[in-house]
Amino acid sequence: MSEKHLQKGSAFPAKSDDGKWRLYSMQYCPYAQRARIILALKNVPHEIVNVNTTNKPEWFLELNSLGKVPVLDTGSSIIPESLVICDYLDEIFPEPPLHSKDEQRRERDAALLKEFDEFLTIYHGGIRSQDEASYPACVQELTTRVAKFDEELRKRGTYFGGEKPQMIDFMLWPWAERAPIASQIFKENFPDATVFPSLYSWCAKMRVNPVLQDTKTDFRKQLKFYELYRCGGFIDYDMPI
Fold first, then answer.
1. CB-based contacts of 227-235 (< 8 A; 24+ apart in sequence)
2. What is the CB-side half-sphere exposure of residue 162 using CA atoms within 13 A?
3. pLDDT tens for residues 60-69?
4. Torsion of CA 148, 84, 207, 228, to 10 degrees
5. How many domains, in total, are found in the chain?
6. Active-site positions?
7. Which of 11, 105, 202, 240 has its CA 20 to 30 A from that of 136?
């Protein structure tokens, strides 16, 4: 694993001789965290190369012209996009199975993730805004949408996957892990976690999952990253704390 984030001018990192797959990632990216979680859950031998997504290495743009992480290199294929990567891993490595065998349930999960993408558009716009006067309206919209997820979870059980976490849970988790950051940004406008009892309980159970413990990012670094991201300042991707 590259401890530091490689940037423009960095040489392409030589691959190991053991045939391990490689994930191009970024320490603070929730989309890349999705892929790291599933690779760990599936016990897939792999190495991680961290990329500075603001000042990208030239060779990374050759791998993915959009310049986004995550990107999975299997040795024979280059696979971008977090959901595509995670579904691919679940297909190639069937244990433990992470998708429901029920087709209607899978369709509902896909619809829920689509709704979540709409939520993220509003969420990311809100945390980037420097206009604090806009926070109440933004938080109200987010709260309304989160309430729908809380109700959906109440109907489904302990997890969105039912009685055990499945792919849908792990795809949502990186942003749930970052919820305390949103509370720091929106401050008094942010609702108390107990407003969403089902999600509150879900978070408590997910948080102690060993794989999620191993793939989390230090909260202080995450908060610092988001503060710099919001103001458009220089981001030291390898910042010390």
1. 229/128, 230/127, 230/128, 230/130, 230/185, 231/130, 235/54
2. 9
3. 999 999 999 9
4. -90
5. 2
6. 29
7. 202
CATH number for the domain that contains residue 45: 3.40.30.10
| Max intra-chain CA distance, the chain | 55
pLDDT in the model for residue 186: 84
116 in any annotated domain: yes
Residues near 60 by beta carbon (within 8 Å), at least 6 away in sequence: 6, 24, 51, 67, 71
Q: Which of 80, 96, 112 is the last residue of a domain?
A: 96
| pLDDT surpasses 80 at 190 | no
Q: What is the mean pLDDT of residues 130-144?
A: 90
Domain assignment of residue 213, yes or no = no
Q: Which of 76, 96, 116 is the last residue of a domain?
A: 96
Q: Clarify whether residues 86 and 111 are in a common domain.
A: no
Are residue 62 and residue 139 in the same domain, yes or no? no
Query: DSSP H helical segments within the chain, as ranges?
Result: 30-41, 58-63, 82-92, 103-128, 135-156, 167-177, 179-186, 197-207, 210-214, 219-231
pLDDT at 3 over 80: no
Check residue 231 and give its pLDDT: 82
pTM: 0.95
Distance CA 95, CA 198 (A): 28
pLDDT for the residue 1: 56
